[in-house]
């Protein structure tokens, strides 16, 4: 649960399907903490049983524009976003996050993990692909006492995997998500105001424009306030 558009929508989907939700967030050395504030707010809004934040310090490893002094790419075209793995990729992040989720699920006796990854998001992230997710689920069912002794299976749910951003937004709105309480920006300004120019902001704005809905967030770059 990052407090972003995707993970908040996934929480709403899981809640709508009748799951008791335990939300897991990470202080992983990212350069901003507003996403954790939003994660807490949305976890409370959707009645999560618990919201756990783990401090795992991936900034000690670095290698990403999100955890080190590498500059966050700005103003890239959507074609540029499709070309290769971006500097905002955090090495092995989803594998690390899912491993913690797998451990907590075993302790809780949970049989489902929901994650907001998306394969149509121009991201280029290798750990957002369907084949990656299938491989992790297979590994998870070989790796725990719950699976080997108790014969419990763990399913990884990625309901947004093949959805366009506009479709995700419309789905969330139908489930009562207030996107004014979400955060997507890689490089926010003061008080968490999004920049409007990083890949994540541009993809978010494009999704709202295609959905025919105004993004409720303010942006530092005023040219983006009309979703243009």
Distance between the termini: 28 Å
CATH second-level architecture = 3-Layer(aba) Sandwich
- Percent strand equals 5-15%
CATH homologous superfamily?
Answer: HUPs
Q: Rg, please? A: 17 Å
Count of extended strands: 4
Give your account of this protein's structure:
This protein is mostly helical and 228 residues long. It has one domain: HUPs (Rossmann fold), CATH 3.40.50.620. It is built from 8 helices and 4 strands; from the N terminus they run αβαβααβααβαα. A two-stranded parallel sheet has the order 1-2. A two-stranded parallel ribbon has the order 3-4. Helix 1 crosses helix 7. The longest helix has 16 residues. The mean pLDDT is 92.
Give structural attributes:
single chain, 228 residues, mainly alpha, Rossmann fold, two-stranded parallel ribbon, 8 helices, 4 strands, 36% helix, globular
């Amino acid at each position: 649960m990052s407090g972003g558009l995707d993970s908040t929508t996934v929480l709403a989907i899981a809640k709508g399907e009748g799951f008791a939700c335990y939300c897991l967030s990470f202080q992983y050395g990212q350069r901003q903490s507003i996403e954790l504030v939003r994660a807490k707010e949305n976890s409370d809004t959707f009645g999560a049983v618990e919201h756990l934040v783990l401090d795992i310090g991936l900034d000690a490893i670095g290698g990403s524009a999100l955890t080190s002094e590498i500059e966050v790419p700005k103003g890239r075209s959507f074609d540029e976003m499709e070309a290769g793995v971006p500097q905002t990729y955090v090495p092995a992040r989803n594998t690390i996050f899912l491993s913690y989720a797998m451990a907590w699920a075993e302790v809780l006796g949970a049989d489902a993990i929901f994650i907001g990854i998306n394969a149509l998001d121009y991201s280029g992230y290798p750990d957002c692909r369907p084949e990656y997710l299938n491989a992790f689920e297979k590994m998870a069912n070989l790796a725990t006492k719950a699976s080997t002794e108790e014969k419990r299976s763990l399913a990884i749910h990625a309901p947004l995997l093949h959805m366009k951003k506009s479709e995700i937004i419309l789905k969330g709105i139908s489930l009562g998500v207030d996107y004014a309480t979400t955060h997507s920006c890689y490089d926010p300004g003061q008080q968490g105001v999004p920049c409007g120019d990083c890949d994540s902001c541009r993809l978010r704005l494009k999704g709202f424009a295609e959905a025919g809905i105004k993004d409720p967030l303010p942006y530092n770059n005023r040219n983006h306030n009309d979703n243009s």
